[in-house]
Design the sequence.
């Protein structure tokens, strides 16, 4: 798996991970390490471009969810209570982590795992960047 | 019936997925059923490798057949005995990143198949059988 990192400017700086390859038990740690590195160098808004990800397993789902948790813990205005309530009633969408162009099958896995309930999924790069 | 036997290591997950796809395609299963079965097989094989063998050497045997309008995949291994069908349902109140490793895999395996059954083989190993109905008529 490869991750190409770019930095885009919308209303706020957005880091884009263009991921090529499977996100699964073999590659999830590499993905997590890259997320941590981005976070440590100042990333607070992350867009995952999944257009070239043919396969995501539960390990990939878990890693994406971990990225959501890391980016959330920035103390930037979201109280735990509000987020928990929003997650339970499906009204919360992360302002820090969004997804771009998952394939039909990957989208189905994201949906089965419930990740689509709290992560926005976009089909256009510029719109995705502008949505942060 | 077609089968392969691979070393139980993570790089072979792609080999397993490719085998299931090619065999199920040759059996004329529909695309949706194939994709769902690939997901379920990969999740199950991952659990065998990571949690079953736990870095100890071993093999996984994968068998693909069609029984009427049902695509059947069997996974056999010699890891310590474990019946994933007896795992409790996922705790959906826990955030995904805090769910035990493997549990989400079992959950997805159940969601992507019509049935998951387990038995201990005569050699004392694990055998997991995944079934998925296919659309239209399939070849036997």
Sequence:
């Amino acid at each position: 798996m490869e991750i190409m990192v770019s930095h885009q400017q919308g209303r706020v700086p957005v880091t884009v991970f263009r991921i090529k390859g499977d996100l699964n038990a073999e590659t999830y740690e590499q993905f997590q390490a890259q997320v941590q590195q981005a976070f440590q160098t100042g990333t607070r808004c992350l867009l995952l471009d999944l257009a070239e990800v043919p396969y995501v397993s539960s390990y990939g789902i878990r890693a994406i969810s971990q990225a959501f948790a890391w980016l959330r813990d920035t103390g930037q205005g979201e109280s735990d209570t509000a987020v928990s309530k929003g997650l339970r009633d499906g009204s919360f969408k992360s302002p820090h982590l969004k997804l771009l162009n998952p394939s039909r099958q990957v989208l189905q896995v994201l949906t089965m795992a419930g990740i689509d309930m709290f992560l926005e999924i976009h089909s256009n790069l510029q719109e995705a960047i502008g949505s942060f | 019936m077609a089968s392969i036997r691979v070393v139980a290591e993570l790089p072979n997950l792609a080999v397993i997925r490719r085998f299931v796809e090619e065999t199920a395609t040759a059996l004329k299963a529909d695309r949706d059923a194939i994709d769902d079965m690939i997901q379920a097989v990969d999740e199950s094989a991952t659990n065998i490798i990571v949690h079953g063998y736990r870095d100890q050497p071993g093999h996984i045997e994968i068998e693909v057949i069609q029984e009427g309008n049902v695509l059947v995949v069997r996974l056999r291994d010699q890891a310590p005995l474990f019946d994933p069908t007896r795992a409790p349902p996922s705790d959906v109140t826990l955030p995904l990143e805090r769910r035990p490793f493997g549990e989400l895999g079992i959950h997805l395996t159940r969601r992507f198949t019509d049935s998951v059954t387990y038995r201990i083989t005569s050699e004392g190993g694990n055998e997991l059988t995944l079934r998925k109905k296919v659309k239209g008529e399939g070849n036997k």
